[in-house]
Amino acid sequence: MTIAKSGVEGAKVSQVPLLDIGRGNAPLKEEFMAAFESVLDSGRFLFGPDVFQLEESCAAASQTKFGIGCASGSDALLLSMMALDIGPGDEVLVPSFTFFATASCVWRLGAKPVFVDIEPTSFNIDPARIQEQITPNTKAIIPVHLFGQCADMAAINKIAQMHNIPVIEDAAQAILSEQNGHRAGSMSLAGCISFYPTKNLGGMGDGGMLVTSDEAFAAKLKLLRGHGMEPRYYHQVVGINSRLDTLQAAALNVKMKHMAEWTEMRRQNALRYHQLFGQCGLDLVLKLPTELPGYHHVWNQYTVRVPRGGRDSLRKHLADLKVGSEIYYPVPLHKQQCFASLKEELAPLPETDKAAEEVLALPIFPELTEAEQRLVVSSIAQYYGIEANIDATPQRKSA
Ligand SMILES: *Cc1c(COP(=O)(O)O)cnc(C)c1O
Predict the structure, then answer these.
(1) Alpha helix (H) ranges present in the chain?
(2) Quick one: 147 exposed, middle or buried, by C-beta within 10 A (0-12, 13-18, 19+)?
(3) Phi, psi (deg, nearest 5) at residue 303
(4) Which ligand 1 atom sits closest to the C-alpha of 173?
């Protein structure tokens, strides 16, 4: 039996897949099986030693003191909002250009997500726009480290401290990412990590983790993830059931050992795209993603901008050539049907709207080969009728 080659939720056979999870997992199969066997033998399916080990290693990887495992990145966000006692009448500043969970955690508690525009180069929440949206009801800010590059936490924290507003990092896509040497998750009250299979540390199902250095906040999060129960069958507060399975943690512990190496491979792939796109002049046609000075990008996604309405037809051209790509995210949150009631008070979000029309994510996973990257680039060059001096045969590694 072999480990499936395809993606997460069923993928088609591609010449160059957007993501091939099997390439990372297959070489570790024996290790996974041994880890699963020891969980099976122990019978400790919840709160087994693997969970504590992962909590410790995630805390360390995030330069924080405590890790609190939970069922998903979405739950990590929800728990952080619960621990801040967010509720009706409260406003929480979030980007609109993000995955749904960044805002649903606010909405589910009866509070109002207030959408803030992004900074066009990084795709991340714009600190200048944050300032404008703060009201006496603002009770938290959730910057997202989108695609693997940190939001400008230095600027965000300055504003937040001025107004005494807690900040929670949505670090779902950004484990090991840094700004000014500070890791994602360590630059605010707490960071929320996701182990969804497409994330840089992807599990074999759902899982999530909160990281924080605030001992009291960590204790509150632990209480809330376990029904607010302490001691057993005595409920101090109403929490939820959100646990990280030991089996899941066992798989993630195996993968955690490779995170530094896999992150470096993503960074090399980003560098190579940069060189290849530059070689054929496509850097003048597309807007390539960049690593901002002082940042350490972990490239969960390599997202280019396709200007002048060409994105969807380029994507179709790539699909015809079986080159994987994806749009993160086609409909920004402020345009989602479920948030229609927020429309009246909405600030204009021109950069968010523009990004949603232009972005296209290309394959960047660690094991992507140079030949595959050349094929991606030459396929795009072909679309634009550019004579690409890039053949698809791999050459000596330039890195
Ligand atoms: C993946 C993701 C989440 C949610 O994580 P899950 O583990 O899938 O619940 C939240 N925010 C962002 C930005 C994400 O990319």
Answers:
(1) 21-25, 29-42, 49-61, 73-83, 101-107, 127-133, 153-163, 215-225, 246-256, 259-279, 311-320, 350-358, 370-383
(2) buried
(3) -110, 115
(4) 15
pLDDT, tens digit, 9 for 90 and up, residues 357-387: 999 999 999 999 999 999 999 999 999 999 8
- Ligand 1 atom closest to the Cα of residue 74 is 9
Q: Check whether the bond before 329 is cis (ω within 30° of 0).
A: yes
196 lines ligand 1 (CB under 6 A): yes
Bridge-partner residues for 125, per DSSP? 118
What confidence tens digit (pLDDT) does each residue in 325-334 have?
999 999 999 9
Q: Does any ligand 1 atom lie closer than 6 A to the CB of residue 74?
A: yes
Instruction: Please give the distance, rounded to the nearest whole angstrom, from the Cα atom of residue 379 to the centre of ligand 1.
Output: 30
Q: Give the three-state DSSP class for 94.
A: strand
What are 66's two structure tokens? 């405590």
Q: Whose CA is nearest to atom 13 of ligand 1?
A: 99
| CA 156 – CA 149 distance, rounded (Å) | 15
CA–CA distance, 192 with 371 (Å, rounded to integer):
35
- SS3 at position 340: helix
* 172 CB within 6 A, ligand 1: yes
Go through 66-105 and write b for each residue having 16 or more CB atoms within 10 A of its CB, e for each that does not.
bbbbbbbbbbbbbbbbbbbebeeebbbbbbbbbbebbbbb
Q: Is 244 close to ligand 1, i.e. is its CB under 6 Å away? A: no
- Ligand 1 atom with the smallest distance to the CA of 101 is 10
Measured from the Cα of 144, ligand 1's closest atom is 13
Measured distance CA(333)–CA(223) in Å, rounded: 30
3-state secondary structure of 75: helix
- Domains recognised in the chain with CATH numbers: 27-256 (3.40.640.10), 258-383 (3.90.1150.10)
Task: State which amino acid sits at residue 352.
Answer: T
Model's pTM, two decimal places? 0.95
With helix as H, strand as E and coil as C, how does 233-261 read?
A: CCECCCCCECCCEHHHHHHHHHHHCCHHH
Centre of ligand 1 from the C-alpha of residue 199, in Å: 8
The pair of structure tokens assigned to 354 is: 């523009």
Q: What is the pLDDT of residues 232-244, one digit of tens each?
A: 999 999 999 999 9
Q: Give the residue whose CA is nearest to atom 6 of ligand 1.
A: 73
Nearest residue (CA) to ligand 1, atom 10: 101
Does the C-beta of 113 come closer than 6 Å to ligand 1? Answer: no
Q: Give the pair of three-digit tokens for residue 158.
A: 């300055």
The one-letter amino acid at 92: V
